[in-house]
Design goal:
- The chain is α/β, with parallel strands linked by helices.
- It folds into two domains: about 20-80 and about 350-450, Alpha-Beta Complex (Aspartate Aminotransferase, domain 1); about 85-345, Aspartate Aminotransferase, domain 2, CATH 3.40.640.
- Helix content is about 35%, strand content about 15%.
- The protein is built from 15 helices and 17 strands.
- The protein has helices at about 20-35, 40-45, 70-75, 80-90, 105-115, 120, 135-150, 165-170, 175-180, 210-220, 250-260, 330-345, 350-365, 400-410, 435-450; strands at about 50-55, 55-60, 65, 125-130, 155, 190, 230-235, 240, 245, 265-270, 295, 310-315, 375-380, 385-390, 415, 415-420, 425.
- Strands 4-12-11-10-7-5-6 form a seven-stranded mixed sheet.
- A hairpin with a 2-residue loop joins strand 1 (about 50-55) and strand 2.
- Helix 4 packs antiparallel against helix 12 (about 330-345), helix 5 (about 105-115) packs parallel to helix 12 and helix 13 packs parallel to helix 15 (about 435-450).
- The longest helix is centred in the last third of the chain and has 18 residues, at about 435-450.
- The radius of gyration is 22 Å and the shape is globular.
- Bound molecules: 4'-deoxy-4'-aminopyridoxal-5'-phosphate.
């Protein structure tokens, strides 16, 4: 069986029996023997992939799933969008690798990227292509800010995720990932994020006056606060891996104001929130702020090809030649599909689809709040999370979230987990997902929550 190549077609998810099916089980056991113990996704989602199209993926046992993991938010147009595949195929025959030489494909890509920025930023942002991962671009952003300010420290936020390289991990909240790694990047300080469903200061959200930001402002301005002015503050506008937590508008605006006042470069990690994921090209546009540095990667190519970059205020451009090199900074195929992806965003009004489908998800998932195990439902655009907690004491219910994920998979929906103790069930659909697929996915998720958290 193959998946229909007609993008408009609705494919019924179908799971034939227990998971993993026999063919997936064979692949998984070979993987278990040969690949590192650090492998992640197939542990909770025990399938081997065969083919994908649009919002659907088929495993090697002919089970068909709605894929709302979408390559961890990479596949803006789902799998194998015909226009992107056509452009990729043509570019493959022409030029694939270009280091950091200028090329037509790269020039078009840069031009297209800049047209997506708010007007005020377009003329003063420079672009640097990094090694092809979000983490490498985070490293580049931090190095740039250190060079420009001559300072060494970095401020980050609890619950944040910035990648698994040494420096990006140092600014990430995940204690378990960091604990076994000694001599991590020094000088990183963590502050509380505006996680109002589980206030990091233990305050009642009803009484909140953005005390988390008040604490950061006071700490930085206190001559006895212990923290010299940092080279950068790095933040996600919506914490993704941290459990789909949109920052409050007041939190972001005050953060922008204090970083301006103290001349601290503000780095927005939009690796996950960028490229249309939240309904604007970058999420910061919905907060009425202007960053100094933006980190982008996942959705840039539209097709899941590796590419990463930073956009930054030209005032910060203090780098010497070769300050951040990398062999794989010139993925011409990703540039070509990235330019085509922006054309499709405009042609198909994809940002509007993100907003409309986002509202649809909100409407469908809000009903889950009636279940006492559902602690919170939140999201922005097409990033959604359902946080599960024990109604008896409010503790994060990671075990229930895992059951929900497994139940959903058995009924044909792939979702991801995140947040404290992996207690948030997350959805990152393709940005061109249809209303029909959203309805079907939310129904499977609602049934899973009802079955696993009765
Ligand atoms: N920053 C954010 C906000 C992310 O979500 C991720 C990946 N989930 C990264 C950085 C790291 O990206 P990569 O895995 O490509 O290194």
């Amino acid at each position: 069986m193959t998946i229909s190549q007609d993008s408009a077609s609705w494919i019924r998810p179908v799971v034939h029996g227990d998971l993993p099916g026999p063919n997936s089980a064979r692949f998984l056991s070979r993987q278990d023997r040969r690949e590192s113990n650090a492998r992640t996704y197939p542990r909770n989602l025990p399938i081997a992939l065969a083919e994908g199209f649009g919002s659907f993926v088929r495993d090697v046992d002919d089970n068909i799933f709605i894929d709302f993991l979408a390559g961890a938010g990479v596949l803006s147009f789902g799998y194998s969008h015909p226009d992107l595949v056509r452009v990729a195929t043509s570019q493959l025959q022409n030029l694939t690798h270009g280091l950091d030489f200028p090329t037509q494909a790269k020039d078009d890509f840069i031009e297209a990227q800049l047209t997506m920025l708010p007007k005020a930023l377009r003329d003063r942002m420079k672009i640097h292509f990094c090694g092809p991962t979000g983490a490498n671009a985070v490293d580049a952003a931090l190095k740039l800010c250190k060079t420009a300010t001559g300072r060494g420290g970095v401020l980050s936020f609890q619950g944040g995720f910035h990648g698994s390289s040494h420096a990006a991990m140092a600014t990430t909240g995940l204690v378990a990932q960091k604990r076994p790694i000694s001599n991590g990047m020094p000088g990183v300080h963590f502050f509380p994020y505006s996680y109002c469903a589980r206030c990091p200061l233990g305050l009642n959200p009803a009484m909140c006056d953005t005390n988390c930001m008040e604490y950061l402002e006071r700490s930085l301005k206190d001559p006895n606060g212990g923290i010299p002015l940092p080279a950068a503050i790095i933040v996600e506008v919506v914490q993704g891996e941290g459990g789909v937590i949109p920052a409050t508008v007041e939190f972001m605006q005050r953060l922008r104001a204090v970083t301006r006042e103290l001349e601290i470069p503000l780095v927005l990690d939009e690796v996950q929130t960028g490229c249309g994921r939240t309904g604007t090209w970058f999420a910061f546009e919905q907060y009425d702020i202007e960053p100094d540095v933006v980190v982008a990667s996942k959705g840039l190519s539209g097709l899941g090809l590796p590419v990463a970059l930073i956009l930054y205020d030209e005032k910060l451009d203090t780098w010497s030649p070769g300050a951040h090199t990398g062999t794989f900074r010139g993925n011409q195929v990703a540039f070509a599909t990235g330019t085509e992806a922006i054309r499709l965003f405009r042609r198909d009004d994809v940002l509007r689809n993100v907003m409309e489908r986002g509202d649809q998800v909100r409407g469908l998932l809000e009903q889950l709040r009636r279940n006492p195990w559902v602690h919170d439902v939140r999201g922005l655009g097409l990033m959604w999370g359902v946080e599960l907690a024990d109604p008896a004491d409010g503790s994060p219910a990671g075990h229930i979230a895992r059951d929900v994920q497994a139940h959903a998979l058995r009924h044909g929906l792939i979702v991801e987990l995140g947040g404290r103790n992996d207690s948030v069930v997350r959805m990152l659909p393709p940005l061109n997902v249809t209303a029909e697929v959203v309805d079907a996915a939310c129904e499977i998720l609602a049934d899973a929550v009802a079955a696993c958290a009765p």
